[in-house]
User: Which sequence fits this backbone?
């Protein structure tokens, strides 16, 4: 057979096999999920399909599998799929069926968290805003209008999955589903209605008859047969409410999300591995990483408010899909090891030894073999313990795993995986000039700012969601104020005060911009106060209120108002501020959205004219447009928007999200060093205080054409586009510190990059970390040249770390190799 025919033969064969696949039985007992009767250890990772592109999915899922996962988890995003009531969208990166089939094709299981409330730092927690605006609704509680809508959407998704035979009970990959989400965390204020609601959720979900178990996370009173699961930084102390429910960790936070104005969060590989190893030591059998790939908040999907466009999450796969090393590799070793212990962990008798000072051993024994976990949860003191005649040193805040209870195969604090340092490189497209050449046009604000003309009016201040149905971030509030001579006696002392629930306010009086403000530091509500000069007769007041992601978490979060509250004219008396006029019951005129949004100026086909000359800088409410060539190669592409203020960016008509590089991260809370020891929380190990909170914005390769591409920016605050440029994210330096008798693996992450030079190498007692390595007092004299021969010119290389392969050292202690290489 010619190779080509062989290929056809095999694909026909696999087609026949997959179409004749029979039902998989998924159940559970108190120990683990069972798949076709076998207890299984599940290593799962969250990837939210709309936060990447269908073109990225195969690679992301493949890298998850190579990282030792067997399951991919995702939420389903109601507001993305049903943007208008009973009008559905499953196109492009919303193609849920394609995503699940990709998981199946990669040979993995899927965990579908239908919710349909998602949280997830997603706009409005995934609820459609039209839902909130339905007559008589009370959301997320025992309310018939709400329950009918929730059931309708949940059924729609279940039916869609069933039609495509995607549940394991039909031979598909979905082994688990979730109804509701973290309701237990917020349930108190809902009282009895909350309890009735959660019971109804359970009954409703059960009635959908999907043939695989349902879970409810953070729901200690989950009605049977729902499985109650845990979310958090650590879940080792968690016990399910029912003895027949396995210990499952549905959200193990691998890092943290980023907010506008917030520094970069970082959770170390050592601490994350410690949390996972502890969870399995204490009987856990199902772990899901939230997130395994975080990705990007394209369009207006970021929640919050004030959640940034990047949703990197410091996850094992970075925003662009690169391996985040050492996190990915350190966890991979742990997954493979735990999977190799599946039988004993899910069947073994468990015993433990307490060594005091939160040092303990857990022994699993089954069928004549034993596996051990030795853990030291003390956050500062290392420990040496004796187990069955052997002494083991346990670094503080670490777990050692001994699959045979003799030799340590893994310690969570000893990272043998390489550290990879990625940098941004300038666009290397052919003939691409350094500076982009721009055209521009103003957002037409004459109607609103000069004349106060809107599309509807009311004698009250309307809440923003109610006015817009969230069809845009922008809502213009306009009114006029008539002053007579007496009012003006007050002269210069007049102050305009706007009490707003956010998220950004631009105020104009009599055609002039008088100020802009947004909340800094956590509270969404702020009061804008600015001195104004008014004239006799009619004065025009125009207030543009801008949302930056709707709130996604908390009891009754969906009722949180946005937009203007009160608007007043106040006078600054010596005895305090005195209200002169209150505009709350004025006649207000409203306009939803921007003219440029309506005209779709971001569309490549847009015929609207842009100007080539007098390119403005620092001009508010301005549209900019340029063309560029795609960078060569396969490295992920980003656009550097430093110099811009705030707004939106589109590439070839597709939104790459909000930008706000002028919003600097707060000044304090960062530390120069990061100690992995001790309980992690999202205020630990922060970096980049005082720097721009997001400079680079992901442009997925699939958005780009080979020839000419168009970038359109809408700039709201005023920015300078002359610094804007395209770059690629490439690996620059790779380092590793590996103990003797282990294998060091160095890789330049593919994409044709090779190791071009050894920048540091010492086998002996080196100290320091990537960028700051130093030699110790003893080392092998031949190691550097041996490594040069083995590695330079290679895409990756494997090194046996031993005196046998790297030369003798004359060191007395345990020897290690420290190496730093350049990739090019
Ligand atoms: C959802 O609602 C539509 C009408 O709005 C109805 O036609 C459809 O049958 C409902 N689906 C379910 C599963 O109730
Ligand atoms: C950790 O160890 C130190 C030194 O032995 C001890 O003082 C401290 O109490 C321990 N911490 C905990 C939480 O046990
Ligand atoms: C127990 O171990 C024996 C010998 O290694 C093996 O043949 C047998 O299959 C094992 N039993 C189970 C239940 O794993
Ligand atoms: C283990 O440590 C103890 C206490 O330091 C020591 O007395 C003993 O000799 C050690 N055992 C071995 C096998 O090294
Ligand atoms: C918002 O959506 C609801 C429900 O679809 C509809 O009744 C209402 O008219 C919409 N409001 C606006 C301002 O578009
Ligand atoms: C702003 O509005 C909030 C809520 O409506 C109210 O509690 C607060 O007192 C107002 N503040 C001022 C200064 O008017
Ligand atoms: C009111 O006057 C006081 C004293 O001059 C000043 O500190 C304060 O900032 C003023 N407030 C406003 C809103 O102008
Ligand atoms: C590494 O292996 C060599 C040879 O087997 C052995 O002598 C040495 O003690 C081992 N080192 C460590 C740290 O386990
Ligand atoms: C921040 C947070 O919610 N942490 C939670 C992590 O999980 C533990 C239970 O395992 C909770 O007690 C914490 O509150």
Assistant:
């Amino acid at each position: 057979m010619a190779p080509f025919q062989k290929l056809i033969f095999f694909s026909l064969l696999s087609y026949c096999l997959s179409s004749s696949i029979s039902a998989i039985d998924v159940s559970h007992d108190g120990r683990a999920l069972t798949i076709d009767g076998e207890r299984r250890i599940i290593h799962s990772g969250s990837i939210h399909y709309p936060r990447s592109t269908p073109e990225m999915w195969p690679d992301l899922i493949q890298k998850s599998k190579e990282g030792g996962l067997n399951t991919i988890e995702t939420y389903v995003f109601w507001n993305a799929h049903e943007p208008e009531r009973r009008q559905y969208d499953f196109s492009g990166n919303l193609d849920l069926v394609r995503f699940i089939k990709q998981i199946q094709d990669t040979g993995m299981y899927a965990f579908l968290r239908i919710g349909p409330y998602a949280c997830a730092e997603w706009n409005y927690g995934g609820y459609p805003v039209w839902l909130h605006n339905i007559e008589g609704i009370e959301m997320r509680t025992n309310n018939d209008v709400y329950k009918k809508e929730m059931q309708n959407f949940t059924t729609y998704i279940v039916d869609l999955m069933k039609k495509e035979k995607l549940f394991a009970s039909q031979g598909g990959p979905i082994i688990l589903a979730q109804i509701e989400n973290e309701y237990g965390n917020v349930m108190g204020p809902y009282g009895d209605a909350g309890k009735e609601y959660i019971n109804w959720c359970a009954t409703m979900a059960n009635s959908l008859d999907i043939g695989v178990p349902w879970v409810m996370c953070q729901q200690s009173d989950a009605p049977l047969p729902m499985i109650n699961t845990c979310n958090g930084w650590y879940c080792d102390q968690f016990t399910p409410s029912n003895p027949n429910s396995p210990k499952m960790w549905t959200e193990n936070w691998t890092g943290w999300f980023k907010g506008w104005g917030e520094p970069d969060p970082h959770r170390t590989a050592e601490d994350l591995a410690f949390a996972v190893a502890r969870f399995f030591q204490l009987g856990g059998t199902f772990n899901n990483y939230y997130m395994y790939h975080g990705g990007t908040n394209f369009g207006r999907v970021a929640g919050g408010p004030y959640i940034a466009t990047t949703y990197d999450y410091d996850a094992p796969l970075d925003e662009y899909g690169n391996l985040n090393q050492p996190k990915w590799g350190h966890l991979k070793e742990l997954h493979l090891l735990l999977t190799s212990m599946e039988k004993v962990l899910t069947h073994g008798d468990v015993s433990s030894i307490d060594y005091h000072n939160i040092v303990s051993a857990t022994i699993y024994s089954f069928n004549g073999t034993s596996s051990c976990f030795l853990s030291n949860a003390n956050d500062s003191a290392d420990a040496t313990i004796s187990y069955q005649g052997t002494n083991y040193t346990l670094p503080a805040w670490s777990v050692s795993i001994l699959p045979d209870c003799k030799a340590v195969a893994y310690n969570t604090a000893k990272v043998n995986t390489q550290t990879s340092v990625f940098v941004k490189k300038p666009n290397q497209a052919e003939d691409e000039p350094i500076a982009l050449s721009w055209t521009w046009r103003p957002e037409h604000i004459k109607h609103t700012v000069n004349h106060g003309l809107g599309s509807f009016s009311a004698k009250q201040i309307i809440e923003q969601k109610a006015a817009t149905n969230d069809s845009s971030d922008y809502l213009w509030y306009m009114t006029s104020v008539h002053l007579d001579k007496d009012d003006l006696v007050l002269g210069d002392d007049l102050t305009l005060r706007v009490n707003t629930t956010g998220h950004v306010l631009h105020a104009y009086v009599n055609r002039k911009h008088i100020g802009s403000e947004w909340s800094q530091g956590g509270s969404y509500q702020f009061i804008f106060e600015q001195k104004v000069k008014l004239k006799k007769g009619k004065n025009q007041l125009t207030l543009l209120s801008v949302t930056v992601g709707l709130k996604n978490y908390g009891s009754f979060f969906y009722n949180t108002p946005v937009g203007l509250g009160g608007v007043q004219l106040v006078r600054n008396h010596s005895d305090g501020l005195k209200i002169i006029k209150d505009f709350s019951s004025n006649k207000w005129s409203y306009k939803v959205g921007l003219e440029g949004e309506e005209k779709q100026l971001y569309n490549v086909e847009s015929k609207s004219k842009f100007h080539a000359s007098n390119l403005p800088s620092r001009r508010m409410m301005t549209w900019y447009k340029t063309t560029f060539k795609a960078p060569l190669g396969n490295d992920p592409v980003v656009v550097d928007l430093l110099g811009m203020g705030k707004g939106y960016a589109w590439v070839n008509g597709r939104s790459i999200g909000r930008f706000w590089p002028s919003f600097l991260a707060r000044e304090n809370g960062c530390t120069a060093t990061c100690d992995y020891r001790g309980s992690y929380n999202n205020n630990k190990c922060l970096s980049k205080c005082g720097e721009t909170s997001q400079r680079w914005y992901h442009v997925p390769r699939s958005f780009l054409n080979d020839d000419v591409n168009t970038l359109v920016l809408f700039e709201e605050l005023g920015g300078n586009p002359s610094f804007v440029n395209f770059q690629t994210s490439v690996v620059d330096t790779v380092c590793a510190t590996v103990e003797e008798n282990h294998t060091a693996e160095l890789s330049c992450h593919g994409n044709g990059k090779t190791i071009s030079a050894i920048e540091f190498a010492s086998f002996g007692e080196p100290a320091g970390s990537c960028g700051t390595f130093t030699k110790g007092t003893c080392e092998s004299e031949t190691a550097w040249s041996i490594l040069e021969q083995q590695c330079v010119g290679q895409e990756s290389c494997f090194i046996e770390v031993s005196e046998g392969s790297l030369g003798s050292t004359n060191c007395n202690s345990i020897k290690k190799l420290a190496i730093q290489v350049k990739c090019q």
Observations:
- DSSP finds 16 helices and 41 strands in the chain.
